[in-house]
Amino acid sequence: MREENTEAPQRVVGLVMHLLREIQEQRLDLEDVELISDDLLGQGYTESEINAAFSWVYAKIEGMPQVDILYQSPASNSSFRVLHPAESAVVRPDGYGQLLEMVTLGMLTMDDLERLIERAMAMGGIYGREDVRFLVHQYLFEDATRVQPNGTLHMVQPSNTVH
């Protein structure tokens, strides 16, 4: 569907998902940022990808009590939405699965899910797993009108450094 190289945005979204999953499963201590960053660099992530992911995660959990970070599932109080047949023609099952996982991890709200499905419908094409990650990256990191998890506007530039 896309012609340009979009590997980095998809990798950043995947890295955010990984970090949130590890935090919820209590396998990650964000106080060891240098150690985590070195490990991620060893796995092939770039400084820019790591910085963008950590920046978003820190903004998400800033000011949240530890118990909410670990145990609150934003999707637990709401049912999952079933795609309309027209939406199913645009968002493939693997893409929709990614969206649902992001809602479960607290990365997206149900309102975010609706907006992303609307964007996919408006843009046309077929959205699989990687296409959805690219769309989510645009939504979370590049849309200047998007308010970030801590209530601020957030733009990640390749030169930004968190650690």
Q: How would you describe this protein?
A:
The structure is a single chain. With 163 residues, this protein is mainly alpha-helical. It has one domain (7-142). Helix content is 58%, strand content 0%. Helix 1 packs across helix 3 and helix 1 packs across helix 8.
Characteristics:
mainly alpha, disordered C terminus, disordered N terminus, 8 helices, about 160 residues, about 0% strand
The residue-averaged pLDDT reads 79
Distance between the termini: 35 Å
| Order of secondary-structure elements | HHHHHHHH
Query: How much of the sequence is in beta strands?
Result: under 5%
Largest sheet: none
Total E-strand runs = 0
Quickly count the helices: 8
- Helix coverage percent of residues? 55-70%
Number of domains: 1
Coarse shape:
elongated
Q: What is Rg?
A: 16 Å
The class by helix and strand makeup works out as mainly alpha
Q: State the low-pLDDT regions, or none.
A: 1-6, 152-161
Task: Give the helix/strand layout.
Layout lengths: L6 H18 L8 H10 L4 H15 L4 H6 L13 H6 L2 H12 L5 H14 L5 H14 L21
Helix pairs in contact: 1-3, 1-8, 6-8
Summarize the structure.
By secondary structure, the chain is mainly α. The protein has 8 helices and no strands.
